[in-house]
Amino acid sequence: MESAIQLKSVDISFAVHGAKPFRAVAGADLNVAKGEFVAIVGPTGSGKSTLLNAAAGLLKPSAGRVELGGQELSGLNRSAGYLFQADALMPWKTARDNVAISLEINGVPRREALARADEWLVKVGLRGFGDRYPHMLSGGQRKRVAMAQVLIRDPEILLMDEPFGPLDAQTRLIMGDLLLDLWQQDRKAVMFVTHDLEEAISLSDRVVILSTGPDARIIGDFPIPLERPRDVSEIKLTPEFQTLHRDIWHLLKEQVLKAYGYNSEKRA
Ligand SMILES: Nc1ncnc2c1ncn2[C@@H]1O[C@H](COP(=O)(O)OP(=O)(O)OP(=O)(O)O)[C@@H](O)[C@H]1O
After folding, report:
1. ABC transporter domain location, by residue (predicted)?
2. Which residues line ligand 1 (CB under 6 A)?
């Protein structure tokens, strides 16, 4: 399958004042094909966000390279749309304007941008909410606006960093279903960071496991051959899901325990 984004032997180190550089991620090799949904899971501090930031071009690898369709990425990754845990809505703009701005900054005339923003608000289930300001929306509704804001630009790659992290469990499931619905219509390559293994399995085609940092490595790469379309709450009840969960958790648990050990030693 054709590659959308590829990390080749990527190391990422941070300068630390008065100490030797801190190598968060070491030797990461990851190839995400066009149309593939890959989840990245690992204990806290294992470098999930760091890897995503390298894919976004926000961080430059200290060794190795990031490639887009075979070309080395330099500077910002302009073919990617980025959805963070905290949404980036502008409080002084309505939901409609928050979505339309994504097109307006690329030169789309305002009338057209507003018309397309309205279509996207319908797609994310917010018909009739266009005139509301972010503070008049629930957390889940704001997340829908943020999703429309990213998807309206039609990015080739979606980079998502715990996008549903702050939401309650029920809303997370609903947002997972919405994401899969939209993704099915027009498959993008997705890198989806989460610490929630159930969420990772229920959404993705592959689950990649990072070891505890520093020097975190990719230590597992599991295909998820569950049928699509999926219902993210129903799929968890199937024996296939449970077998996958057991196998992957076996590997992840060890790292999670190590992460706690490492942190408690550090604290002591
Ligand atoms: N700018 C920075 N300077 C120094 N160290 C950093 C910097 N950014 C991240 N780190 C370190 O790199 C490691 C990986 O951080 P990262 O945020 O990628 O982890 P994560 O897996 O996304 O964690 P979490 O699940 O807790 O969000 C951590 O040990 C963190 O302290």
Report:
1. 7-237
2. 14, 16, 22, 24, 42, 44-50, 195, 213
Ligand 1 centroid to Cα of residue 195, in Å, is 13
Atom of ligand 1 nearest to the CA of 16: 4
Residue 185: count of CB within 10 angstroms of its CB: 8
| DSSP sequence for 80-140 | EEEE-SS----TTS-HHHHHHHHHHTTT--HHHHHHHHHHHHHHTT-TT-TT--GGGS-HH
Catalogue the long-range contacts made by 22-25 (C-beta closer than 8 Å, 24 or more residues apart).
22/214, 23/62, 23/214, 23/215, 24/50, 24/213, 24/214, 24/215, 24/216, 25/50, 25/51, 25/54, 25/210, 25/213, 25/215, 25/216, 25/217
Distance 25 CA to ligand 1 centre (A): 9
3-14 β-sheet, strand order: 22-33, 3-14, 63-68, 71-72
pLDDT tens column, 236-258 = 999 999 999 999 999 999 999 88
Q: Residues 203, 180: contact at Cβ < 8 Å?
A: yes
Amino acid at 20: K
Cβ–Cβ under 8 Å, residues 228 and 183:
no
Query: Ligand 1: distance of its center to the CA of 120 in Å?
Result: 33
Ligand 1 center to 16 CA (angstroms):
12
Write the pLDDT tens digit of every residue in 72-113. 999 999 999 999 888 789 999 999 999 999 999 999 999 999
pTM of the model: 0.93
Helices (H), the chain: 48-56, 95-104, 110-123, 139-151, 169-185, 197-203, 239-267
